[in-house]
């Protein structure tokens, strides 16, 4: 069952944790990126094939240490999962928060990928990037998050085409609402961001922001388990002919289909109705 070594970022909770456990059961040796020793210890206790490594994807020294730990490979796979969600009306979101969103979701993803490409070449490994259906469907007040995931979608396509000469497959996993802590963190951060908005902006968007928070809670209550995304990641790493795109969750597939079929203004009207 030995399948080689896989690096996964952001494994403390949610998709990352579920993926680390699934791949370890499938026979991979998993290097699981965490930011706290306690999270790493819990993962290793859950499965001895999981070796935790401290990796903040925005910390250049920690990314370099990860590359030294692998020491040229070979590496069977890289799963770029680490991410955060910043929410709020674009009119009032501080630019510092926008930069923080991109530092983690986009620049951090690219930094880890650049650092590990030689070990991936050595093992003819695969790259799986965790995007979001929000990278295709841009709803109000999650513009920072959605735009960062749109960038991940674009980077994934470019990487896939650039790395064809080395037969390095690149797949994008686009979940919808999954039962992960990012929803709760996103709701908490949204409330913090809303509270920090200028009074004028809060007044302008008060009704829509209240509707957004209620909608997030409703969606989270019926969210898909994170194991569904972990299953897609495993397929992307092991299938003879992996897909380039995995849309995960019934809600995400419905949204994607409606978005593809409806004219933009008709879809805009559906979104507006949902936020009344």
Main features:
alpha/beta, 10 helices, 57% helix, globular
The succession of helices and strands, N to C, reads EHEHEHEHEHEHHHEHH
Low-pLDDT regions: none
Which percent range fits the helix content? 55-70%
Task: Look at the structure and give the mean pLDDT.
Answer: 90
Overall geometric form: globular
For the biggest β-sheet, the strand order reads: 3-2-1-4-5-6-7
Question: Hey, roughly how much beta strand do the residues contain?
Answer: 5-15%
The structure class reads alpha/beta
Distance between the termini: 53 Å
How is the main sheet built?
7 strands, parallel
Radius of gyration: 19 Å
| E-strand count | 7
**What is the tally of helical segments?**
10
In short:
With 276 residues, this protein is α/β, with parallel strands linked by helices. Helix content is 57%, strand content 12%.
Explained architecture:
The chain is an alpha/beta fold and 276 residues long. The chain is 57% helix and 12% strand. It is built from ten helices and seven strands. Strands 3-2-1-4-5-6-7 form a seven-stranded parallel beta sheet, sandwiched between helices. The longest helix is centred in the middle third of the chain and has 29 residues, at 95-123. The chain is globular.
């Amino acid at each position: 069952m030995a399948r080689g070594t896989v690096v996964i970022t952001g494994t403390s909770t949610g998709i990352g944790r579920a993926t680390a456990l699934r791949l370890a059961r499938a026979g991979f040796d998993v290097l699981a990126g965490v930011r706290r020793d306690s999270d790493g210890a819990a993962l290793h206790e859950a499965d001895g094939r999981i070796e935790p490594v401290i990796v903040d994807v925005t910390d250049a020294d920690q990314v370099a240490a990860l590359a030294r730990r692998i020491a040229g490979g070979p590496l069977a796979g890289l799963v770029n999962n680490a991410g955060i969600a910043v929410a709020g009306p674009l009119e009032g979101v501080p630019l510092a928060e926008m930069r923080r969103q991109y530092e983690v979701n986009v620049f951090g993803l690219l930094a880890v990928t650049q650092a590990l490409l030689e070990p991936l070449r050595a093992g003819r490994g695969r790259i799986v990037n965790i995007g979001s259906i929000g990278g295709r469907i841009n709803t109000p007040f999650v513009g920072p998050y959605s735009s960062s995931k749109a960038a991940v979608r674009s980077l994934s396509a470019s990487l896939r085409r650039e790395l064809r000469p080395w037969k390095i497959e690149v797949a994008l996993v686009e979940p919808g609402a999954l039962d992960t802590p990012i929803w709760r963190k996103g709701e908490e951060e949204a409330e913090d961001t809303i509270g920090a908005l200028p009074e004028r902006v809060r007044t302008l968007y008060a009704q829509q922001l209240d509707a957004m928070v209620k909608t997030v809670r409703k969606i989270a209550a019926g969210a898909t388990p994170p194991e569904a995304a972990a299953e897609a990641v495993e397929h992307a790493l092991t299938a003879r002919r992996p897909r380039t795109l995995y849309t995960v969750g019934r809600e995400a597939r419905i949204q994607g289909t409606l978005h593809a079929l409806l004219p933009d203004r008709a879809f805009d009207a559906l979104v507006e109705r949902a936020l009344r």
